Amino acid sequence: MSQEFTGSGAGVALITPFKKDFGIDYHALERVIENQVKGGMDYLVALGTTAETATLSENEKREVTQFVVGKSNGRLPVVVGMGGNCTSTLINNIKSANFEGVSAFLIVTPYYNKPSQEGLYHHFMEIAKNSPLPIILYNVPSRTGVNMEAETVARLAASSDKFIGVKEASGIMSQLATIEKYTHKNFNLISGDDVLALPTVTIGGKGVISVIANGLPGRLSSMIHKALSNDFAGATTLHLEMIDLFKLIFKEGNPGGVKAMMHCQGIIENVLRLPLHPISEGTYQQIKDAYQKLTS
Fold first, then answer.
1. Catalytic site positions
2. What percentage of the chain reaches a pLDDT higher than 70?
3. What is the sign of the dihedral through the CA atoms of 60, 61, 65 and 68?
4. 187, 165 in Cβ contact below 8 A?
5. pLDDT in tens, 91-136
6. For the chain, what is the HEC assignment?
7. Is the pLDDT of residue 197 over 90?
8. Tell me, what's the pLDDT at 4?
9. pLDDT, tens digit, for every residue of 145-156?
10. Per-residue b or e along 276-285, where b marks 16 or more CB atoms closer than 10 Å to that residue's CB
11. Residue 3's pLDDT is what?
12. Structural domains in the chain plus CATH codes
């Protein structure tokens, strides 16, 4: 574990490539990881939403974690996504797994049972008491059905040093700004939306956990690094170059869009596990055209 890991900079929410028989394509995953290293990304996030983690078996989750840690080989920190809607089960999963070589957890708010803000606070505090690693909170209400409000995030940040940041994917800029205002300087606001990554940095945020970086690590990392260095003109240029793809890759859901783009690049097969399904031919062509325009 790296004690210095903070979640600052450009992180990538890694996809899980699948072969045509729906098995995990580890050769393709290795290519993706190598591209992240070469592209100047700051850290890797395994088993997040973009990884189709809900469709992976427990054994596959362990294998993917070990594979990403092994192929990273200390070159980039590795964050592992965790989550669940039963606090005690999640704590048991954390205690029973081998997280050697992992720098932090990304822990999503409980889904489906829609806890109150007080419930969210106590859920995460219990996890903090039992976690061997730093924690990045993950708020993505469009998927979980519950929004962790800025006041709750600030309360958690003040209550335990285990919480090093929040991946904020509510899309509510006023909420992000409130988090930035009321959390201490060592707590990092991290964008969970590619299209809001640059605006987030302009209000004091420290980076992004990106989807598009799976296929465009160099451009995405450069945008974030320029913004963090106060080169907002250069960062804006890159942001506008990618803006069409930012929108298109989410048009029919994630990770269908980014997988289509990476298929255009020849990196992976265009395969998802049900209930997810490859995007339509029309959107695929739009993504292909936008990618070719960007790189021509």
1. 138, 167
2. 99
3. positive
4. yes
5. 999 999 889 999 999 999 999 999 999 999 999 999 999 999 999 9
6. CCCCCCCCEEEEECCCCECCCCCECHHHHHHHHHHHHHCCCCEEEECCHHHCHHHCCHHHHHHHHHHHHHHHCCCCCEEEEECCCCHHHHHHHHHHCCCCCCCEEEEECCCCCCCCHHHHHHHHHHHHHHCCCCEEEEECHHHHCCCCCHHHHHHHHHHCCCEEEEEECCCCHHHHHHHHHHCCCCCEEEECCHHHHHHHHHCCCCEEEECHHHCCHHHHHHHHHHHHCCCHHHHHHHHHHHHHHHHHCCCCCCCHHHHHHHHHCCCCCCCCCCCCCCCCHHHHHHHHHHHHHHHC
7. yes
8. 80
9. 999 999 999 999
10. bebbeeebbe
11. 47
12. 9-227 (3.20.20.70)
User: Which pair of tokens denotes residue 292?
Assistant: 């070719």
